[in-house]
């Protein structure tokens, strides 16, 4: 386990980039979202485009925080399960 933690710490493991069926679905949804934002943006004036960009930036930042939080909670749960298994 120590080797895996070291690899993770050094940036040699990036679970966020591992592809699963869900990540493919998510990728498709993100592509569709990007297309829709571009289409919507085409019909907006300058001030409205700035507002849409601010909304998009805020959404992306909140999504990053949410993903990080989910990773931390999942990792913590995994550690608790391992500790309980080792302790008995």
Largest sheet: none
Percentage of residues assigned to helices: over 70%
Q: What is the 3D shape?
A: elongated
Helix-strand topology string:
HHH
Instruction: Count the DSSP helices.
Output: 3
Q: What's the total number of strands?
A: 0
What's the average pLDDT?
Answer: 87
Based on CA atoms alone, the radius of gyration comes out at: 19 Å
What distance lies between the first and last C-alpha atoms, to the nearest angstrom?
19 Å
Low-pLDDT stretches: none
Description:
The chain is an all-alpha fold. The chain has one domain (20-87). It is built from 3 helices and no strands.
SSE diagram, text form:
Blueprint: H1 2-9, H2 21-42, H3 46-87
Brief summary:
The protein is an all-alpha fold. The chain is built from 3 helices and no strands.
Key terms for this structure?
88 residues; mainly alpha; 3 helices
């Amino acid at each position: 386990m120590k080797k895996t933690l070291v690899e993770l710490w050094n940036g040699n493991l990036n679970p966020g980039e591992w592809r699963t069926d869900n990540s493919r679905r998510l990728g498709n949804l993100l592509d569709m979202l990007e297309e829709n934002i571009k289409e919507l943006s085409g019909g907006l004036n300058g001030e409205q485009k700035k507002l849409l960009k601010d909304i998009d930036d805020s959404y992306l930042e909140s999504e990053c925080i949410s993903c990080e939080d989910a990773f931390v909670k999942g990792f913590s749960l995994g550690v608790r399960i391992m500790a309980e298994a080792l302790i008995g």
